[in-house]
Amino acid sequence: MTLTTEPTQLTIRRTGSRIGAIIDGIQLSGDLPAEVVARIRAAVVEHKVVFFRGQHLDDATHQAFAARLGSVTPGHPTIQSSTEGAFLTLASAGGRAASSWHTDVTFLQNPPAFSVLRGLTIPEYGGNTLWANTEAAYADLPEPLRVLADNLWAIHSNDYDYADAFDGAERRFEEFTRLSFETRHPVVRVHPESGKRSLLLGHFVKQFVGLRPSESQQLFGLLQARVTKPENTARWVWSTGDVVIWDNRATQHYAIADFDQPRTVRRVTVAGDIPVAVDGRTSEVVTGDASGFVLDDLIS
Fold it and tell me: Which of 63, 153, 252, 255 has its CA 20 to 30 A from that of 268?
């Protein structure tokens, strides 16, 4: 797949048959032609996560490019200490990362559509990130499990310490849960652009609606294991200046805490839609008001 623009040649090369692609021949910015932005967006939707080497963006360019994909959001709905406007900075002196499989901010009614992450300080070794294709996981379900999943709903909550990306885990947990959010999501959502179905799970799942906690735990483990099968995953070995964009509506990710040197990455998210179930019903707020989780005034 090659798109030629003057004076830029954009190329897309798969990293695996199920997930991941590297995009070369482009310098990201807020001034890219609309057709180039559309091609990048289509590649993210198709490949779930795309990788750009050596971009070395500054904050203004990072935010301006993300805004071409949609309305940018605040950095995080609850974390203040590491949030500045549209940016969430995840920094560690070593060995702390979001080491649990998750889809970003699913405790809100409308989780982000896209995440745009850039590497600022990368350790000499370790600190890789994994992504998993939740559409492929759904497609691989045997029919009895697929019928079950199609009819399941789950409560997602932020009452979970999902990222030891900050020193002082207890303080970070208190900040992360300072506002309470719970949302009832379908376990299977229909993608608003591709029309494909995917599993909406990850570690923010508190319980399946109508099931006991013990039943929820066992069923969650069964379905979640389908998502994280190795053949559904891609792994990125970071270098300083890299940028990664993923479709938060069709992936989970996991930052591997196997480093002992400083690591800093910086993220901007793009506002998403409310998930739609296979029967057309939409996610519902149980607790919390996330109406402010779009900052149109940040768009440049």
Answer: 153
Residue 129, sorted as left (phi over 0), alpha (psi -120 to 50) or beta, turns out to be beta
The total number of structural domains that make up the chain: 1
Q: Which residues are catalytic?
A: 102, 104, 253, 267
- Please give the Cα distance from 128 to 95 (Å, whole number): 12
Q: What is the pTM of this model?
A: 0.90
| Continuous H helices in the chain | 34-47, 59-67, 134-139, 143-150, 169-176, 213-227
Pair 292, 56: CB distance under 8 Å = no
Asked if residue 297 belongs to a domain, the reply is no
Look-up: residue for tokens 């939409």?
A: 282
186 domain-assigned: yes
- Length of the chain in residues, anyone? 300
Q: For residue 3, what pLDDT is reported?
A: 40
What's the CATH code of the domain at 130?
Answer: 3.60.130.10
Enumerate helices (H) and strands (E) in the chain, giving the number of each.
6, 18
Determine the structural domain holding residue 74 and report its residue range. Answer: 2-290
pLDDT given for residue 98 in this prediction: 62
Domain for residue 112, yes or no? yes
Per the domain annotation, does 99 fall within a domain? yes
d(CA 136, CA 274): 21
Distances (CA, A) of 32 to 64, 209, 243, 257: 10, 45, 16, 35
Nearest to 65, CA basis, from 224, 185, 244: 244
Helix (H, G, I), strand (E, B) or coil at 129: strand
| Selected residue with higher pLDDT from 94 and 86 | 86
